[in-house]
Structure formats: C-alpha cells, structure tokens
Amino acid sequence: MSQKTHTPQTRPFRWDGVSVLAYKPDGGTHFRDITRQVLFDDASPHGVQLRYFEIAPGGHSTLEWHEHTHAVVVLRGRGRALVGSRVHTLGTRDLVRVPPRTWHQFRAGPRTALGFLCVVPTERDKPRRPTPADLRRLRAHPAVRRFVRV
Ligand code: MN
C-alpha cells in the first residue's frame, strides 16, 4: 500500500496507483458485481483502512455481521442498505453507520451504480454470514425479506 501523501484521482472514482480488486478475495455467490479499492491502509495499532467499494447496477454486497463498526459515505449514485432490520434509501453523500454485530447489506439501484467509502479498523474480525435460522429470523420482517440477497 502506498505511503504517498497525495494520490490524485486519474479518472472518476479511480486513483493513481490504486488497483481495482475483487470485493472478496475468496470469491463466492453471496455478492454480485462489486469491486474494492484500498485507498488508505494504516497497519499501526488502532490503525484504520479506507476502502472504496463500487456496486454495479443490480449488484449487492454480502449479507453479514461482525464485531467491528463500518463508517460509510456514499460517493456515487444511489442504492439501498439494510442495517439491522431497517432498509434505508441512499443518496450521494449520505452517511451510514453499521454498529457491531448488526446485519447489513448494500445494494445498487437497478440502473444506478452505488459507490461508497467505508472505514474499518485494520485489525478486525471476519464477517459472519447467515445460517438458515438467521435467515428465517431476518425474513420475519417483510421489508427485509424483500431486500436480502444471499
Ligand atoms: Mn461488513
């Protein structure tokens, strides 16, 4: 990861020397049409990472929870986010907080990409995906049942 003090944008939502990566290195079918760029990576104790995710129209992130918190800022487009048992409609520059141990998933609009910055602790636990029992509980909320993709 670059230690440069200034990294210019080279074209919209792309930065000099920053690779466009797979959303999750181990692949899977629990997400769709999403890329990851690591913009800032501080390995020191209590350091944070700043990532830019972009979900193509119709795509979604993984339905998951973990112990760490997400701070999210929408940079591009529109979409929706499940946080806990609520589905929020997101516009550009909206903020989203994902508290610890809280189910969450991001979806782009059908014809609109959703690009967002996400801050996490560098040292963090791995996401957990839903068990069949978790999914039954989540789907008891009608709005959540309509929203989730697994
Ligand atoms: Mn997450």
Please provide a written account of the structure.
With 150 residues, the protein is mainly beta. The chain has a single domain, classed as Jelly Rolls. The protein has two helices and eleven strands. The termini are far apart. It binds manganese (II) ion. Manganese (II) ion (MN) binds next to loops. Manganese (II) ion binds next to loops.
- H/E series, N to C? EEEEEEEEEEEHH
Residue share in β-strands = 35-45%
Q: What is the second-level CATH architecture?
A: Sandwich
The CATH topology turns out to be Jelly Rolls
How many domains? Answer: 1
Oligomer: single chain
Helix fraction, binned, reads: under 10%
Roughly what is the average pLDDT, rounded to an integer? Answer: 94
Q: End-to-end span in angstroms?
A: 31 Å
Bound molecules: manganese (II) ion
The largest beta-sheet arranges its strands as: 3-4-5-11-6-9
Structural class per helix/strand content?
mainly beta
Number of helices: 2
CATH H-level name... which superfamily? Jelly Rolls
Question: What is the CATH class designation?
Answer: Mainly Beta
Which value, in Å, is the CA radius of gyration? 15 Å
Major sheet, described briefly?
6 strands, antiparallel
Task: Describe the global form.
Answer: globular
